[in-house]
Fold these 3 entries.
Entry 1:
Amino acid sequence: MDGETRILKSVCRSCHGGCGALLHVRDGRLVKIEGDRDSPLSHGRLCPIGTVTVDLVNHPDRLKHPLRRVGPRGAGEWQRITWNQALDEIAERLLEIRSQHGPEAIALGTGTGRHHIRWVSRFGHALGTPNWCEPGFAQCFHPRVNTCLLTFGDFPVCDYTGDTPPACMLFWGHNPIHSGPDGETRFAVREALEHNPKLIVVDPRRTELAARADVWLQVRPGADDALALAMLHVVIGEQLYDERFVRECTHGFDALADAVAACTPEWAAPITWVPAEKIRAAARLFGRTRPGMLEWGCAIEHTPKCIQTVRAVSMLPVLTGNVDVPGGWVFGGRGIGRFPSLIENLTLEVSAKRLGADRFKLLGGEGADLPAAHIPTLLQAMREGKPYPVKAFLVFGNNTLSTYANAKLVRESLMKLDYMVCADLFMTPTAELADIVLPAAAWPELDQIVGLPTVAANVVLAQQKAVQVGECKPDEEIFVELARRMKLAVGTESVKEVLDAQLASGGLGLDFAALAREGFKEAPLAYRRYERSGFRTPTGKIELYSTRLEQLGYPPVPFYEEPPESPLSAPDVARDFPLVLTTGGRIPFYFNSEHRQLANLRRAYRDPRAEIHPDTAARFGIANGDWMRIETRRGGIRQRARVTDGIDPRVINVEHGWWFPDEPGPEYGIWKANANVLTDNAPPYDPAMGTYQLRALLCRVAKAEASG
Ligand SMILES: Nc1nc2c(c(=O)[nH]1)N[C@H]1C(S)=C(S)[C@@H](COP(=O)(O)OP(=O)(O)OC[C@H]3O[C@@H](n4cnc5c(=O)[nH]c(N)nc54)[C@H](O)[C@@H]3O)O[C@H]1N2
Ligand SMILES: Nc1nc2c(c(=O)[nH]1)N[C@H]1C(S)=C(S)[C@@H](COP(=O)(O)OP(=O)(O)OC[C@H]3O[C@@H](n4cnc5c(=O)[nH]c(N)nc54)[C@H](O)[C@@H]3O)O[C@H]1N2
Ligand code: SF4
Ligand SMILES: [Mo]
């Protein structure tokens, strides 16, 4: 009715998502958002990004209808077309490329934790290609997930929804106060902090958490493995471990004890830049204060030794018996059910063609939970046609030029494609390289089920369509329509049918319409399930010595290895690039490369900032707020100097995700401040996961002449 306001319960997905949201709709328009106090996860709170959802949805620059390129690729000349024209053309071109070059010549890309992420690989599997990718996959969360599935048989998360708060919290390469990382985690962390637990923070920067920590370990970027091994050395050497839990529930304790025998805090100090007594203090505090939680983040997944670092860090809660106990690490209940990934549609022969699968078995092969292609190998296939040509790339929700390592080489690779499609909310420097651009629906414009893997492991929520904007379509629907037009044998069911089937297999006893009415449903959380059923690993125990990794051909026990471009491993490079670079620490106003269009957020946080110590700044004549040039062997960018003694004089931290939608297209300033001009996608990679170098690199700085 005209003028009447409807309020719909939904779930914010402006980041990975999870915060309960009430969407106010009047005359078919989103007019207000507020936090849903009934939400079991966020209790009515929203972060700055969630708060401006109305501006996001109604932004004048939203893509509102499909576009076809008319000029040369990347020239920024576009013509409006209808959905029918766009979908018919895409279907036809994909069928053509598939029949000429094989289905594996079509690759799909997406972004982190999107509502539609699993639909991207599903559509790929339906059309017969094993090549889909996501820039965080080898570097974000999945290394932790895949490693834990192999060595714990499940993925442990922090117990925030139970009755027992943690007595000790260890934050490792993770700043959830800013990052979430599954939105509502930031609020759960704050609630846990109200109980005044002991705090240990491993971070090269003095974050808000580090500032209030009992022990702050200011680690050299990329030296986390040495630090974790030294802490394990102390926990074992000083018998701070839970003897019963270790004996009954773990496999390979003696092998681990042997591996860390030489890793004394004195050995680790010069490697990690953390004094030995601090390493001891942290290990003792974590060993003696129960229950303890580990909150870990993507910082340990941004170097090529990611899996061994993840393994080493994960053993701290294990040895101290903080697994599957109230207030510790728990295994969430599952209510969301199995997503029909259609992976069974790929024959073994086709799966074996997944780029990188032969080498990186935890990313793309038999050790992977949801196998994905290796990005540097995929880009090489685009550029050089080796090991076989990749001709088409369909990007559903990723700003490839911004978030893939070595952005200049990424552009060169994309320019070699025969056919590129981009679905996004806004025109981006990446979408400008496409043949067809599709207007995607934002989260308040679609139905989905939300069952996040961290805090919300035992909660399933409904995201509901509140409004329609222009001709925007949910990504899920685009896939269904393409599958139908291509006359694929599978993947043609409606979105509603898939959501209902997924809920049915989760066993909560309700379909999507019922979930949407109720808002959310909690599955019961049980502790110490292992006492009845053991762990789902070959030995039935948590594998400190991993039999599965050994079987896959990877080292079964963690060890220390220098990052490839560090002052210790590459002293020749360090002569010209003497500072250690880390990138990407999250800021609360933007999600990766997004939201720079939103005036309210830009007012709060106008420019990119790079952190530098006052001594280093003085050495190069840089003052707080100056534009500073940061260079690596790959290239140079500018960010504004944030001069702070919260960072080591030898370290520089740059923000990632920056481009400037307010500057002229088709580049929108993508080369000015983009952290990934600095990063590297060349080998070496993590041998199991294919991870490349986003952090722990070498750089130099200088004062920049003008803002540019
Ligand atoms: N507001 C907001 N929220 C986000 C995102 C966003 O862009 N904005 N991004 C989302 C995504 S994709 C992810 S993966 C998560 C990431 O969120 P987190 O996992 O919290 O990761 P970061 O904030 O990138 O880095 C965490 C901390 O690691 C530190 N660090 C840097 N290098 C190293 C190192 O070598 N070792 C150690 N131990 N620490 C290091 C940084 O200083 C930073 O404080 O956040 C998600 N949530
Ligand atoms: N140097 C450096 N690089 C990094 C990182 C770092 O720390 N340092 N972090 C890495 C990590 S952990 C990650 S996860 C990746 C993140 O990489 P991505 O998750 O791919 O993030 P973006 O590249 O910002 O792409 C998101 C795009 O999706 C669009 N979008 C938003 N919602 C929708 C939707 O519903 N549908 C569609 N079709 N589009 C939508 C947005 O407008 C935006 O253009 O970046 C990685 N890159
Ligand atoms: S934390 Fe994420 S889910 Fe929560 S309000 Fe912010 S953007 Fe939305
Ligand atoms: Mo990520």
Note: Residues 199 and 347 are 49 Å apart (CA to CA).
Entry 2:
Amino acid sequence: MKYEFSITKNPNPKKKPDPDTLRFGTEFTDHMFIMDYQEGEGWHDGRIVPYGPLSLDPAAVVFHYAQEMFEGLKAYKSEDGRVLLFRPYMNAQRTNRTNDRLCIPQIDEDLFVEAIKALVKIDADWIPQKEGTALYIRPFIIADEAFLGVRRSNHYKFIIILSPVGPYYVGGLTPTKLYVEDKYVRATDGGTGEAKCGGNYAASLKAQEEAHAKGYEQILWLDGVHRKYVEEVGTSNAFFVIGDEVVTAPLDGTILPGITRNSVIAILKKKGIKVAERKTTIDEIVQAYKDGKFKEMFASGTAAVISPVGELRYKDEDMIINNGEIGPIAQELYDTIYGIQTGKLPDDMGWTVEVK
Ligand SMILES: *Cc1c(COP(=O)(O)O)cnc(C)c1O
């Protein structure tokens, strides 16, 4: 191995959670990875240590100006006991694009993936195997120089934590109800919409709470300028089946370039299903609904993989999609992607990376 990390074993390992009652992101494993960055020295001192609280200076830049980024991917254990990561190099590449936007130093892609592998290997017993469960991997970087002026930090921490998770939505593959947000916006051209950073989420909480209060699980965001083009769903990318074509928003700066989104497009192309990355207005979707051409909608993201949408609310228009049931394209995509991720299907795309 090119990289060596020191390992301090946790002297007090925790009891593993019951796989039947796992929720999303509430339990954490026995270890975490930490590595420091110092201007002039670069990334150094990568180490695996017992999971636990951090000690940070209250003046750390992250607390005041949100210089922070995060990633998300999953590890699965196959029936024959192999530990599989799904396309981790794409997370490494996206990390560097996010870092560039937020003036966080670049990180070597191999270092990023090797750190994940080393940590997952130590806590491999935490990977749950029940259908719909996985070990969620959360790499993130925080600016921790103690300094209150506004400029890029000279010191950072790259941290990875692991969380055994159940389905992202309590109902699993049960279709969700979405509210089309026409007041708040998530991203604008030239902003940070395509960067995976906490700031985007802090700004989205209010819209999500208001949608929850109205009885909707998530938001479908419209573009920040015209509030006209459909963009994304909360923590995932949005797909619409209109007639015989699957459409999703293009990656033009305001959309998070999802790895699941990229995988969905590749699989659809391989299966010969028409797919287009193009700007689509909410009015086009409402019209397609009225014409009986709005066949399916689903969201794609690491947490839920594929999440079917059963109801879409835009102003006074309440669209019930595919009788509120999961559609055939969403089901096939879920089966294919989840099958590859868990090693049940042959990985003919070369997407999985084994942790040995
Ligand atoms: C992470 C994320 C996604 C999904 O990306 P995946 O790589 O598929 O998990 C979509 N939208 C937003 C806003 C995200 O943060």
Note: The chain has a mean pLDDT of 96.
Entry 3:
Amino acid sequence: MALLMRSIGSPNWMINQDLCGGCRAVADKMTGLNVTGGEDIDETRCALIVGRNPSVADPVQWMALKRAKARGARIIVIDPFRTPAADLADLWLRPRPGTDAAIGLAMAHILIAEDLYDHRFTEQWCYGFDRFARHVSDFTPAWAEARSGVPAQDIITAARLYAKGPFCFVSGHGIDGSSTGVQTFRTFFSLVAITGNVDRIGGNRRAKKPEGFKTNFDLLFDLNYRLPPEIEEQRIGSKDFPLWSGPSGFQMACHNPSVLTAILTDKPYPVRALFASGANILLTYPDVDRTIAAIQSLDFFVVGSQYMTPTAAWADIVLPKTTTLEEEEVTVHQAGPCVTYTAPASVRQGDQRSDHEIAVALIEALKDRQAIYKDYLPWKTQREFVEFCVSGSAIRLPELETTGYATFPFSQGNFSEQVIATPSGKFELYSQQMEGAGVTPLPIFELPAHQLEPAETVDEFPLVLQTGFREKTYHHSRFREQAWARKVSPDPLVYIHPETAQRFNVAEGNWIKLSTPRASGTCSLKARITDNTLPDVLTTGMGWWLPEASGPEFGARTVNVSAAMTYSGPWDRASGSADTGGMACRILSVSANLPNLS
Ligand SMILES: Nc1nc2c(c(=O)[nH]1)N[C@H]1C(S)=C(S)[C@@H](COP(=O)(O)OP(=O)(O)OC[C@H]3O[C@@H](n4cnc5c(=O)[nH]c(N)nc54)[C@H](O)[C@@H]3O)O[C@H]1N2
Ligand SMILES: Nc1nc2c(c(=O)[nH]1)N[C@H]1C(S)=C(S)[C@@H](COP(=O)(O)OP(=O)(O)OC[C@H]3O[C@@H](n4cnc5c(=O)[nH]c(N)nc54)[C@H](O)[C@@H]3O)O[C@H]1N2
Ligand SMILES: [Mo]
């Protein structure tokens, strides 16, 4: 999709990573760690799980964690919600939403104050340790307790457990998709770095791949497939979020909320057409009203999807797409680590095409109209592309097809051969690239959105909203049209603490209508009363719509939590991410039944 956009000369490719793993990815790159996905849980002695609900979100990781626990590894969980992982944990820290960075900094404080860090590793491989050590000397566990609500003694215990190592950091969306996410991730990545748990057995492995293998992600940066810098500089978001959108940014993608603004205001320049594929943006971008307004104002809107979603319902043209079950793919898995081959598992029916085929056919059609800047998609079929990915490596596709996976020679701790991609060539506790982009170079604690509100707003919006809590039944907005899934999980739930329920006269099964500051819409969710969630914290999922309701909205403005959220800031200074949790919120009304759909 990115190469299709480049082929028509547009630098404006959007991806929903700003709301997903974008904060982690930026922090990972800025520190040079490059460890995302490389948790060596099977060999670890201590796993620190922060903002992750693995029993739902990642069953393979969950099985590894249970195995680790069974062989005596320690599990520490940081999560405001009581998840199965919290029940499994030896130590469960329960912070107020969005305050994790305070805990990370205080753990670093203890590791340094009690001399529990790795001297040799920090001297040889970390940049800015002295500045970092001075910086964290103020952030005592008592300071962190005041911000997070987690007892200082528990933070000290966590730091000491962790120091025993080998230790591995397992993270999730609970601290990502947030306006403070990059700094929060940096505090925890600092722990990984100063204890030397990088590329060590039982630690966090750096991303590796077979020699010569090319990934989709490599192509984004490959100079053979790049637009000229003067075009890339015009990417929307490039100026405000250079680390994300700029020509030397990490993601090579737009700042999505600013694209919506461009559609609505023509600033910084008009955007008149949009092609949405593999994303259900009406439901998964915050502020459903505004997304609809933007879509409605476009001259041309195309959606690629395998079924009619609320996003597709607004399109001028819907292109019927295959699902991954009908496509083939090769992927590098850092968790293995290995390369896997996925064969099409079901036969195509009817007239449908993959994204690759759609892109190739569009480029051909546009060539006839002289509308192609340069053809950046030389692989005419998915197969040719898969062959290209493996061609430079020792892996042979026919063999890979038979075995399904291939391991590759892999060494850990090879720091001098596998260079660390930072200006200093070391893991940067003090990030020079962030400094260059005008972002605080040392990890800091930033107030979460709900604590940034002025007192009057807090009076009006006394609760905190957490969204995106995953369910086994669904994948984001998918499967609501499947009868079996709706039977298992029929309603959009919101978890509410018994005390909060009493305070707002909410009974089990009532429908709560809620809103947040600066959002234009509201959302109605069905109450489930439980002390799994903290008092005053409402926890809910995401992606809800009702295929049985009337289109084109299918209940998107009624039961989808994004309708009650804003995409207009605050934004993370480095990644541009908006908040999917930690917002102030209020209960507008409580009723026995779901209010009328709109
Ligand atoms: N079945 C299923 N699996 C999925 C998905 C799906 O939709 N369905 N989606 C996939 C995708 S794309 C993603 S990104 C992942 C997401 O899955 P995870 O990474 O597990 O993220 P979440 O489920 O959003 O939240 C994880 C935990 O973070 C906690 N949390 C919320 N706020 C905070 C906070 O301020 N601090 C801390 N420490 N914790 C907090 C929540 O209580 C929750 O227990 O799941 C993937 N797997
Ligand atoms: N409020 C709130 N919003 C969030 C989040 C949150 O926690 N809270 N989480 C964010 C996160 S982490 C993520 S990852 C995003 C997810 O956001 P999206 O990616 O928009 O979510 P999906 O529902 O998975 O939409 C995928 C769409 O792709 C199409 N599709 C489905 N399966 C296939 C397939 O096999 N092949 C192809 N080619 N297309 C397919 C369908 O049209 C489907 O609707 O949402 C983000 N938005
Ligand atoms: Mo995600």
Note: Residues 100-113 form the longest helix (14 residues).
